[in-house]
Amino acid sequence: MSKVKIYSASGCPFAQRSRLVLLEKGLDFDLVEIDLQNKPAGFTSISPYSKVPVIHYGDDRVWESTIINEYLEETFPEPPLLPQVPGKKAIARIWIDFANTKFIPAFYKLLMNQEPQEQRMWTEELQKHLLFMEHQGLRQLSQSGSFWLGDSPSLVDFSYYPWFERWAALEQYRGISLPADCDRLQQWWVAMNQRDSVQATLQPAEFHIQQYAKYANDSASGVTAQELRRY
Ligand SMILES: N[C@@H](CCC(=O)N[C@@H](CS)C(=O)NCC(=O)O)C(=O)O
Fold first, then answer.
1. Looking at domain 86-230, which of 1.20.1050.10, 1.10.10.10, 3.40.50.1980, 3.30.1330.10 is its CATH number?
2. pTM of the predicted model as reported, rounded to 2 decimal places
3. Using a 6 Å cutoff on CB, does residue 223 contact ligand 1?
4. Which atom of ligand 1 is nearest to the CA of 68?
5. DSSP code of 182?
6. How far apart are the first and last CA of the chain?
7. Residue spans per domain, the chain
8. Pairwise pLDDT comparison (231 vs 64), residue with the higher score
9. For position 129, what pLDDT does the model report?
10. Is 182 among the residues known to form the active site?
């Protein structure tokens, strides 16, 4: 079988999610860096949504980071990054869905919104999500371990981490920090930072601040920014 090929962009948090999983699985993969400001001709024949990440493996082509990560988990089961028991696996998927439908949209709504009143509303919304993650997530599901579901990281952790790495941009442009009593989230963040996979993909705060400048003044024109404005 051929190697996995991932189409990625160094600043993309969704691509980072899948790069983290490839690294955690110890896979030897080819990375194709896509310049999202200047996409290659015919990019939609590689990526139907004109986005990264996309992976190719043998005859399979998979896009959408959450689906890619589940595909990688099924194709390369070691080390396992999802619980085996259906009830626990369902809980993991619920938290990944929470990242996709609540946490990440609020992150971008706050970053892109220009109206002070809307910014206040999205700040409250995001803080509410963080407190929910702290109290209903980490504190309930992982009594002693550092990670979301216990002692070892899972697809849940890799679904959230990239937006914490980019928190410096949200802090710079919108002055938001983690709510005071999010101790477990803070500890989780430190534990994630120590993973080799995170260190291998980490970009400095200044990089993310610069990457998100156009989101923060709402002048970004890519497919993702246009979609985020509509929802
Ligand atoms: N839901 C997608 C989101 C992927 C996404 O939005 N990727 C961005 C970069 S971070 C992209 O490629 N955007 C293309 C564009 O803005 O033109 C996933 O989870 O993979």
1. 1.20.1050.10
2. 0.98
3. yes
4. 20
5. -
6. 40
7. 4-75, 86-230
8. 64
9. 98
10. no
Q: Which of 65, 30, 94, 74 is nearest to 162 (CA)?
A: 65
Which atom of ligand 1 is closest in space to residue 50's alpha carbon?
Answer: 14
Tokens 């206040």 correspond to 120
CB of 51 closer than 6 angstroms to any ligand 1 atom: yes
Q: Is the CB of 162 under 6 A from ligand 1?
A: no
Residue 17 CB partners (closer than 8 Å, separation 6+): 53, 65, 66, 68, 69, 158, 159, 161, 162
pLDDT at residue 231, as a whole number: 78
**Domain 4-75: assigned CATH number:** 3.40.30.10
Which atom number of ligand 1 is nearest to the Cα of residue 11?
Answer: 10
pLDDT band at 155 (very low <50, low <70, confident <90, very high): very high
Please check whether residue 211 is in contact with residue 170, taking contact to mean a CB–CB distance below 8 angstroms.
no
- Residue 149 is predicted with a pLDDT of 97
Q: Is the CB of 65 under 6 A from ligand 1?
A: yes
